[in-house]
Amino acid sequence: MSKPKIATTSMCGCFGCHMSILDIDERILDLIELVDFHKSPVDDIKEFTDRCAVGLIEGGVSNDENVHVLQSFRENCDMLIAVGGCAINGDIPSMRNKVPLRECLDEAYLHGPTVHNPDGLIPNDPEIPLLLDRVYPCNEVVKIDAFLPGCPPSADTIWTALVAVLNGEPLELPYELIKYD
Amino acid sequence: MDESLEQAVSEICDQYNNDPTRLVDVARAVQARLGHVGNAAMDAIAGNLGIHRVEVESCVSFYSFLSTEPKGEVVIRLCDDIIDEMKGSSRVARAFRKELGIDFGETTPDGRISLEWTPCIGMCDQAPAALVNDVVLTWLSSDAARRIVRELREHMDPQKLVHSFGDGNNAHELVRAMVDNNIRKAGPVVLAPVTQGDALHKALSMSPAEVIREVKTARLRGRGGAGFPTGMKWDFTRGSDGDRKYVVCNADEGEPGTFKDRVILTERAELLFEGMVIAGYAVGAETGILYLRGEYAYLRAYLEHVLDDMREKGLLGKGICGRQPFDFDIRIQMGAGSYVCGEETALLSSCEGKRGDPKTRPPFPAQKGYLAQPTVVNNVETLCCAARIFEKGSGWFAEIGPHGSPGTKLLSISGDCSKPGVYELPMGVSLADVLDLCGARDPKAVQIGGASGRMVGEDDFERSVSYDDLATGGALMVFSHKRDILKPVRKFMEFFVEESCGYCTPCRVGNKLLLQCLERIMAGKGVPEDIEYLERLSENIVTASRCGLGQTSPNPIRTSLKSFRVAYEDMVQEPEGALRPSFDLGAALAEAEKIAGRGSTILNE
After folding, report:
1. Which domains are seen in chain B, by residue range?
2. ipTM exceeding 0.95?
3. pLDDT in tens, B144-192
4. Residue B529: its chain A contacts at CB < 8 A?
């Protein structure tokens, strides 16, 4: 029987959660006994070609590409887990939510104190994703099945959750793994 | 700094002996004199009272009747509760907007009239209603709204807008209100005829311990809704150590749909004050405070008059009933528009001149209440019952109603019924009988206990109004079959979002999330799991909130989900695609598309 597949993505996050996934150290060898990585920055597979058991989502939804990615994760994964604060709440990137989009772009590309942009242009290649009006938590865009809080969640938290899910056990993490004060 | 402002503030602060615990009164007086409590005024208050400026600002910004920005000379506050909405407040609102040429939250360009919404002002039986400064206007219509604005523009005197007076003491020269009592049924305890002084004389002929025993024998329980045994509360307070003790009457009747205390204050003020004196005698207090909600300011002059009258008759003040050395006096503390101040510890904060933040319990007010001294906090109706127990005997009282809930209960009934008003009924009366009495029209749901109470359907109509079954502070709103059940629920949640003091996260954020989810469902964009989300989140808020507000605010959702689950289930559906129906991609992208001058590349591939 083939191993279940997992997919991962980092949307509007800092890749810190992916670092935390790698932080499981040598247990990564156990993990690849359990699963095959499918679409993921870990192996650089770009598109879904197979159904996945679990999708791990890092980061919130900030632009049209994020929407597209999240949509494809929802369509191709049996279970989606929002990993980390940005995916769950939007967190740091969502600090822009109180500022109108045009002002954000102005500050970033035209009038920010460290900006050097003699042409005065805001980048606008068709390949560049369009920003949404604000950064959305994943759960506001598609249904999310489980949430792993943390910034980032520790390697132990991710490991324990993944093993539980892949073995079909209930996702009940001990308090120490989801306590952050 | 403006000298006249300095002087005005200084005069006002002097009136209150520059006592920082009277900050709410000071701020109210400054608001009344200057129209707002601006930066300069706040500085001046802080200077005079010897407190930090931030303490003044946190207080002023907390209460909705206080304002840091200038307001109109006259402020029209239209009542925004579900009953008013059902009775046509939106038409009245439209007329006000049009006639004044401003929207809610604005002031006319000449600075004369402001227009605002306000939560329930306790007039649901004569809705729609509004406050114009302190003057209550009832039975509004769009015609009335237009007339009010025209008349105001002529004389700017809200009192002149009252052309006829209500019944009973509403017509008293110190009240002169168009408010009606609408007493539909007077029971034997609170609304029956009373002989002034009888209760007090009898109570004061006993020892304080005997007084408390009498209240315990009557098995009197608090009428505010929680139903704590009154005798036990008095006993705890009497037994607590403190330099001084206090009796506080909670007349901050802010629970939407409740107005029975307003009627008691209008018609049975003497009885209430006697009850306070008896409580003071029992616990060993010399000072009583009546915390009167800001919306009932129109009753203040009359209540002060009753107090004066009682002092003259020797029923209040020094050497009450000629029996030295019992001294007890009562002052009236005005609220300033805050629902959470009905919660007893928040109410005490407010009496102390602070913002109405609830305190952590324990210690309970009986141990450390007003100014950290042992304090009894009782509801208006409770204190009236206590007084009557001495007039008529504890046995008489205990025999009315079922064993666990003796006495009568005043119900404020409004909504879809032909006879809205106040009913004093024996405890234990069935909901069906109540609905019959008030002429309920084709009732589908009853909201019992106000916004924080519960919504019950026909299956529960045979249940009884009592502490052991449907406990209530007294509000009862009737909704007929033609009503959308989710609308009142949304209204109540909007109310809690507005009135949460913001101190603890479960209440401040949780209620907002509940409301958002409910709105999503009502917009037809909900998914089945939203219903579970509402249930889960409600439970979190109830468990984790700091005070009674958050511990009860999810009740409208929880109880309506129990009684009317189908109403929710009918509104939700599984999404067709991966995206949530509530996620509006077009709207989310609109601004970026405008800025870039192109559509999304990746989504259009």
Report:
1. 3-60 (no CATH), 74-163 (3.40.30.10), 184-398 (3.40.50.11540), 408-480 (3.10.20.600)
2. no
3. 999 999 999 999 999 999 999 999 999 999 999 999 999 999 999 999 9
4. 143
